[in-house]
Each structure stands twice: as C-alpha cells, then as structure tokens.
UniProtKB/TrEMBL annotation:
Its main location: cytoplasm. The keyword Magnesium does not apply. This is TTLL3 monoglycylase. Residues 171-200 are annotated as: Disordered. Keywords: ATP-binding, Cell projection, Cilium, Cytoplasm, Cytoskeleton, Flagellum, Ligase, Nucleotide-binding. Gene3D superfamilies: ATP-grasp fold, B domain. It comes from Illadopsis cleaveri (blackcap illadopsis). One of its GO terms (molecular function) is ATP binding. Coiled coil: none annotated.
Length: 530
C-alpha cells in the first residue's frame, strides 16, 4: 500500500525496468502478462506448494506478477502508453501523470501542422516559410487553388534558373531523365501523352519572356505594388498555363534546350535576386518543381509520393487510396531540392523534445539526436522512395544499392556526434551549434506556439515528441513533421543507446526532478518557459 503504482502499455522495457528500480509496482492491465486475477494471490495453483518459493526466486517476473495482483484495485500514479486513446479512461485521474496530452494532432499530423503554421504570423512575429517548406491541404478548395498558383509561379522561377545554367547566348542544356527512372509516381498514375522534344532542340523564344513577365508581376505583388495599381495575380493573366507547363516539362525533365540572349540573362539574374529578397524558399526550392504528396494523418512514410507534374498531384489526391486515409485529406508540400547530402546520400534528423506544461508552455530540448540515411544515392531525376524517404520503417524494406558510397553506415544511422565530426571535416565545425541547433529549437517552439490553444493539457503530465528535419545546402534546418509517439525500437547500435538514454532521462525529468530540483536530467535542457 505504500508503493507508487505505474502502468505501461506498449513495448517499453526500459521504462518498466527504470520504474521498478525506483521501487514502483506495476499494475498490469488484463491484456498484459499472466492473468493472475483468477488465482489466489498467495499461490500458483499450477505448481506444487514446495516449488512455489523456488519458482519465485528463479523467475524474476513472478514477484512482479504477484505484486501486480495485489495492486489490481489501485489507480496508477504514472501511465506510459503508446497512444492516449488506447488508455482506459477509468485509469485517468486528475492527479496521475500521463505521457500524452489530448488534441495534439494540431501539430503532430501533417494536416494539423500545415494549418497551425499558417496561423503563426498572427500569433508572433515569425515567418513559417523560413523553416517549414510551404504546404497546402488539398481537400480545402482555397488551398488547392493556392497550390496550383504556387506550382505555376515555381515553374516560372525554375525556368529562369534553368535558363541561367549556361552563360551568354549558348543554348542551355538540362539533364534528361531516363524513361526507366521517372519515379514511383508512374506506378500510380498514367501520364498523359506529353509532346516530346529531342535533347538539345530549342523551344520557342517567347517561353523565357513569358516566365520573366510572370516573375515581374509576382515581384510587384510581393513588394505591395499591387495596392494602388491592383495588379492581377500573375497566374490569372492571359498566359496559357497548360501550354506553358508542357513546354516547361520538356525543358526541366525531357532534356530540351533554351536559347537565352545576354539581355535576357541579365534580366533573369536581376529578377531572381529581387525575388530572393522576398521569398525565403527561393534557394531551397531548386529548379525542377518537385513536390511531395502526403496523406494528412498517416505516419512512417505511408502513402508518400514525390512528383513533378501538377496533373499528377491533383489526380493522386483524389484517386489514390492509402490505408485509413479519407479522400481529399492529403497535403502537398514543396520538396527541398537543394539539400545537404552525406556521401551523396539523403538523410534527415530525428530530434527529441519534451513538453512538461502548456500553461505556461515549458519545453525541454534533448541534446542528443540521430540521423537516418536512405538506401540509394540521392538523385532528383529518380524519385523512388528508397532515395527520398529517410524513415526507418520505409528503408528497412530496401537493400543498400551497389552504387551506394561504402562510407554510408550499413545500418543507415548516425549519431549527432558522428555528424558533427563530418561537419568538421567539411570545415563547418560551427554549423551544428551556430546554425542547426538554434534553427531546430526555433522551429519547434514556433510549431508549439502556433498550436498551443488547440491542445487539451493536463497539469502534471508531459509528452515526448520526435521532430524530423532536413538540412539545406546552407545547413539551414527545415522542419518536416512532429511525431507524438516517436519509436523507441532500436534499429541500430546508435538508436539502441540513444533511445534508452532519452527514456531514462525523461523519467528523471518528469519524476525525480519533482522531488529534487537539483537531480540530474541527463541530456535535456530547458529552452523555453513562458
């Protein structure tokens, strides 16, 4: 009766072991362990009486099963579970500690994060475009139309970038995508018949002029010159966008050439320079107009597709069916084309943090994290999942390709310490502490503040989250998503160590620190308290 009680739901042996070591007693739920309720607590009727004591000594779980039976009618002081919805609400009392908050889908689903960050500029002086690739919910008519306009504008900017790849009046050549490697999208949607161009053939000279005119009008809108002149949206002018896109596709993806005069080259350079002052994502968006389509509430890479064609995005959003995804509940996000790779391979960062209170918002950042690598070399001309989705749950299905750099770790995982050593070899030793970590902290805090009013919080509870980041060529971190139940299943020696550490340190933070404010909290640091 003097013991504190805990309940663990899910595969968390570290949590169970750490709490037992503190003298806590586990109340096992009916679906867990042996059903001792049907037996007298002081006897194991399937054993002869003389063997009971010996069995208790030999089986370390037997004493825990017995203790669990003795506390079967007591409510747990602490609950650690996979999902809050999976917890028997009879167990939830005002004063017990639970490792989840309610209604966190406002920032832990792709759809929720997209919506919350749209509201960020109204909450604080922060621009989500500086850390979150622009994103649209395709099930919302206004946002779908905004995406179509964004796709058109990005195509026009991309054309100017392609036109500047070679100097002077010489034709600009672009890399041709092999027919056998146009990505996973082809398995989902049949391409409409596009006109084909022989590599090196020139397109109509007015194509660059049209792209420059679109960019000029867009720049005027961005600079608020439209307030007095009421400049129409560049996407609602007389340009035939379908025809423009077909010619753009030929240049960007089919190897067609462009002829650029010196005057056009100078104008393109000036336009892009001015646009860069207004568009934080101009550099990272690249020049191939690649977008990534995601089911709005799925995780572990389910249903995610990369594509370069507007018609495919719209068709896929309404025709594809992923498990448990409602029609229309898709988001489309700009793909980070200019990203940092390691040994020619794409990677992302899984970064943990804990929220211990929402009013006042209190956030703890974990100083250790890990990198996840893809199984095949990075290529913007080959859009299959093995090259572009870093999720462990996706990459476990792929073998490392023969053309992969042998320096990429076999288990596709690095610690942040290994990454820092790599940055030092690049001559960028300060990038981790001066650019990446501050950028990740700022992005996490902005995401939390944007959704703060939506979360239903419980005093005394907490939640451990896993944020996923890509790294741009300039070492700028780009937030992709935030997970409310980050996996603790080790897939490598690095994650075995780090996942165990973050669980131990989380318990130190939310339990030990309550009794002793000077107790160690491991690798956690307080980064924000309102």
């Amino acid at each position: 009766q003097e013991k504190k009680i805990f309940t663990v739901q899910g595969p968390y042996p570290i949590i169970r072991r750490e709490l037992r070591a503190r003298g806590w007693v586990e109340r096992k739920l009916p679906s867990m362990g042996r059903q001792l309720e049907q037996h007298h607590p002081l006897h194991y009727p399937w054993l002869p009486a003389e063997e009971e004591e010996e069995q208790c000594d030999e089986n370390p779980n037997s004493i825990h099963d017995l203790m669990s039976y003795l506390v079967r009618d007591r409510l747990p002081n602490f609950i650690w579970t996979n999902f809050l919805d999976a917890t028997d609400h009879k167990l939830l009392q005002q004063d017990n500690v639970v490792n989840h908050y309610a209604r966190v889908d406002a920032f832990t689903t792709k759809e929720g994060l997209c919506l919350s960050l749209q509201k960020l500029p109204w909450i604080e002086q922060a621009d989500p475009n500086t850390f979150f690739p622009r994103c649209y919910r395709l099930g919302i008519v206004d946002e779908r139309e905004a995406f179509i306009e964004d796709f058109h504008l990005t195509a026009a900017r991309s054309l100017l970038k392609l036109a500047l790849e070679e100097a002077g009046d010489r034709p600009v050549r672009t890399q041709q995508v092999p027919n056998s490697a146009k990505g996973a999208v082809e398995s989902h949607v049949s391409h409409p018949k596009h006109s084909t161009a022989q590599p090196g053939s020139s397109l109509y000279p007015e194509l660059v002029e049209e792209a420059m005119e679109v960019c000029k009008q867009h720049l005027g809108v961005l600079q608020h010159q439209d307030i007095d002149r009421r400049t129409p949206s560049p996407c609602r002018t007389c340009i035939d966008w379908e025809h423009f896109l077909q010619r753009y596709y030929r240049v960007a993806h089919e190897g067609a050439g462009l002829v650029l005069t010196k005057q056009q080259r100078k104008e393109c350079q000036n336009l892009l320079r001015h646009l860069a002052e207004q568009l934080p994502q101009l550099d990272m968006e690249g020049k191939l107009n690649i977008w990534i389509l995601k089911p709005g509430a799925e995780s572990q890479g389910r249903g995610i597709i990369c594509t370069t064609r507007l018609e495919e995005v719209l068709q896929l959003a309404w025709s594809c069916t992923a498990p448990s995804v409602q029609v229309g509940r898709w988001v489309v996000q700009k793909y980070v084309e200019r990203l940092l790779t390691i040994f020619g391979t794409k990677f992302d960062i899984r970064q943990w943090f804990v929220v211990t209170d929402w009013k006042p918002l209190t956030v703890w950042f974990y100083r250790d994290c890990y990198l996840r690598f893809c199984s095949r070399p990075f290529s913007l001309c080959r859009l299959e999942r093995a090259r572009h989705l870093c999720n462990v749950s996706v990459q476990k299905w792929y073998k490392t390709s023969p053309d992969q750099d042998p320096r990429v770790p076999r288990d596709k995982i690095w610690s942040n310490k290994q990454f820092q050593e790599y940055l030092a070899q690049l001559g960028q030793a300060d990038a981790w502490h001066q650019v990446l970590v501050p950028g990740m902290k700022a992005a996490i805090l902005s995401a939390l503040r944007s959704a703060q009013d939506q979360v239903r919080f419980r005093k005394g509870s907490f939640e451990l989250y896993g944020a996923d980041f890509l790294v741009g060529e300039d070492f700028q971190p780009w937030l992709l998503e935030i997970n409310s139940c980050p996996t603790m299943s080790p897939s490598s020696a690095v994650t075995r160590r780090l996942c165990a550490n973050v669980q131990r340190d989380t318990l130190c933070l939310v339990l030990d620190r309550k009794d002793n404010s000077t107790s160690s909290i491991g690798a956690f640091e307080l980064i924000y308290k309102e």
